[in-house]
């Protein structure tokens, strides 16, 4: 029996995908979480075989939630579920420790097979993603400019996301268990590294990086 944890902030989508998975005799959904932080904690508690992880969520995005699950040594595969069908997300997903990548618009056809593949220790990438990944690999050495986002620490990415979502320094500090002063220090470092100067520019940057949930 493959034990699956669903992490997505859209309850209707979660219910639909849960119903899809539970039709299979070899798959059991052991829990649901509606944000990245809750997903990390639930994965640590339930020890699933596979976590189906949305990429864009409030509070803690799917990329950093995946990193945290891997860091904690939960021992599960993470299958990223996203509306973003772009090459720039593929390398970060795999680098974060993700075992696969499924687009939401084909999840009804691909998800069951993907869950089985990653549960067996394989990597799942749909054909379109494989093509984009190969193209990205072939052109990667030709790109001299390094994306400054790669230079942010996990904590700096968390502060960036929460700032872009409109939380105050005090609210961010409460969520991350650090002081407001530390939040401001992290934010200053982020803005310096990314050459940004105000909150609107942070919001635009976070949207481009897929850190914020956009209307679908």
Summarize it.
The protein has 216 residues and is α/β, with parallel strands linked by helices. It is 52% helix and 14% strand. The protein has 2 domains: 2-140, Response regulator (Rossmann fold, 3-Layer(aba) Sandwich); 148-208, Orthogonal Bundle (Arc Repressor Mutant, subunit A), CATH 1.10.10.
Question: Would you give an account of this structure?
Answer:
The protein is α/β, with parallel strands linked by helices. The chain folds into two domains: 139 residues, Rossmann fold; 61 residues, Winged helix-like DNA-binding domain superfamily/Winged helix DNA-binding domain (Arc Repressor Mutant, subunit A, Orthogonal Bundle), CATH 1.10.10. Helix 8 packs across helix 9. It is elongated. The chain starts with a strand and ends in an 8-residue tail after the last helix. 37% of the residues are buried.
How many runs of DSSP E, i.e. beta strands? 6
Helix/strand-derived category reads alpha/beta
From N to C, what is the helix and strand string? Answer: EHEHEHEHEHEHHHHH
**Rough shape?**
elongated
Low-confidence stretches: 136-146
Q: What does the largest sheet look like? A: 6 strands, parallel
> What's the name of the CATH homologous superfamily of the largest domain?
Response regulator
Measured between the Cα atoms of the first and last residue, the distance is: 33 Å
Helix content: 40-55%
Mean pLDDT: 82
> How many domains?
2
Query: What's the CATH class label of the largest domain?
Result: Alpha Beta
How many separate helices?
Answer: 10
Percent of sequence in beta strands: 5-15%
Kindly provide the radius of gyration, computed on alpha-carbon positions and rounded to a whole number of angstroms.
Answer: 17 Å
| CATH architectural arrangement of the largest domain | 3-Layer(aba) Sandwich
Classify the oligomer: single chain
Widest β-sheet, arrangement of strands: 2-1-3-4-5-6
CATH topology of the largest domain: Rossmann fold
